[in-house]
Write a structure and sequence with these properties.
403 residues, 42% helix, Rossmann fold, six-stranded parallel beta sheet, 15 helices, alpha/beta
Length: 403
């Protein structure tokens, strides 16, 4: 089976960003399937150029083609749309040259690359798999970046078109299923986010990371991920101010459109218990998370975000670190079932600070919660079991049980 993946934000283990599709592609290749990925040459997280081809050993038989793209997607919503549309066009052109494809896999957001995947699948007589990683345009409307009524109607029409014309739709969160099915999708499958516990050592105390940032004697609480409008990191800064009376230090690791504004806000607030750290490749994430005593997952207090399964939560669990969760909904159900963290009301700095204070006050209990979460992840959200389900799904779509 030859699978063509259209994914602008595709990232390998040597790059910052989510590596779900790189891990899936490597598995499919190891199972004897051919995988071609068309991706952007610009990192969606940092804006830096990405390596082409992948470094020796990273690709594991996966062919990655980098398409030309407008690269100013961090400047504004308009620039971001230009970047998305430019990739939609360039990836389609490159996709035409990929031969003997059995399945084309499109993933959203951005939803525009789904158009490329649909068109290539139909032209090549291949199956069209559409993956929903966020509910777009619903999230864009909720957070206030998509406001024009004409664009909203057009975006909703495009969403319905792709859902209804896909041979199969997969979602990475059970919270998305109801919305996707209501639009009239033929068949929806859950392939959830998860993590590979073998990448993480819960006994690693992250000495190198702590020493490099002079945090050896602190209770370190880390946020690792995008610094965007949705991530509500201003609330984390407000919580840090409340916690200035105890030996707690907050590390905000990652990049994004809002990072410069957050730095300026932290300076204006006179915060000395907050450190901004740059993004790191996924291969380095285990060593960085090892330097934390607890980890934060946070989104704006919007009803729409109750449907999400943020991938960072599963990484935190795999690392054996307790989760301070300022997101309600389906991911709260996971954290509470795993008994691996403390829920804080989204948008409430005082609640976030109180959750952190509780963990810092009983560090042995915090450690136990983290290890409990890792065991729960091994049983329920291990990447290996998720990948096995995915392989079976793709092979059933193409009738390719043998390669």
């Amino acid at each position: 089976m030859h699978i063509l993946i259209i994914h602008q934000a595709f990232a390998s283990l040597n790059e910052p960003g989510g590596t779900r599709h790189h891990e899936f592609a490597r598995l499919l290749s190891a199972r004897g399937h051919q995988v071609t990925v068309i991706a952007s040459p610009v990192s969606y997280i940092t804006g830096a150029l990405t390596p082409t081809p992948l470094p020796q050993g990273e690709g594991q038989g996966v062919r990655v083609i980098r398409a030309s793209v407008y690269s100013a997607h961090h400047k504004s919503f308009v620039h971001r749309v230009f970047a998305f549309i430019s990739f939609m066009a360039s990836s389609f052109w490159l996709g035409l040259g990929v031969k003997k494809v059995d399945l084309v896999w499109g993933t959203s957001p951005p939803i525009f690359q789904g158009v490329t995947a649909w068109a290539l699948a139909r032209l090549k007589g291949a199956k069209f798999l559409f993956e929903v990683r966020d509910l777009w345009p619903q999230f864009a409307i909720a957070v206030g970046v998509l406001t024009n009524p004409v664009l909203i109607r057009a975006s909703e029409w495009l969403e319905r078109f792709l859902y209804r014309h896909a041979d199969r739709v997969i979602v990475n969160s059970p919270g998305f299923r109801e919305h996707v099915e209501a639009i009239g999708t033929k068949r929806v499958e859950l392939v959830p986010n998860g993590a590979d516990p073998s990448m993480f050592d819960p006994d690693d105390r992250g000495v190198t990371f702590r020493q490099s940032y002079h945090l050896t004697d602190m209770f370190v609480v880390m946020y690792a991920g995008a610094h965007g409008m949705s991530n509500d990191l201003g609330v984390v800064l407000e919580a840090a101010k409340i916690l200035s009376d105890i030996d707690v230090h907050i590390v905000l690791l990652g990049d994004g459109k809002e990072k410069a504004n957050l730095r300026a806000q932290a300076d204006a607030m006179g915060l000395i218990n907050v450190t901004f750290a740059p993004s790191v490749p996924k291969a380095d994430v285990p060593g960085v998370l090892a330097g934390a005593d607890a980890c934060i997952a946070i989104l704006k207090p919007l009803e729409e975000y109750k449907t999400t399964y943020p991938n960072k939560v599963f990484d935190y669990m795999a690392a054996g670190r307790p989760v301070v969760l300022a997101i309600d909904g389906v991911i709260r159900e996971v954290v509470e079932a795993a008994e691996c963290g403390i829920f804080a009301e989204p948008g409430n700095p005082s609640a976030l600070a109180e959750a952190i204070r509780k963990l810092a006050a009983d560090q042995e209990k915090a450690r136990t919660m983290g290890l409990t979460g890792r065991k729960y992840l091994e049983r329920n959200f291990s990447r290996a079991s998720i990948e096995e389900h995915l392989v079976q799904l793709l092979e059933s779509m193409t009738g390719s049980n043998e390669v």
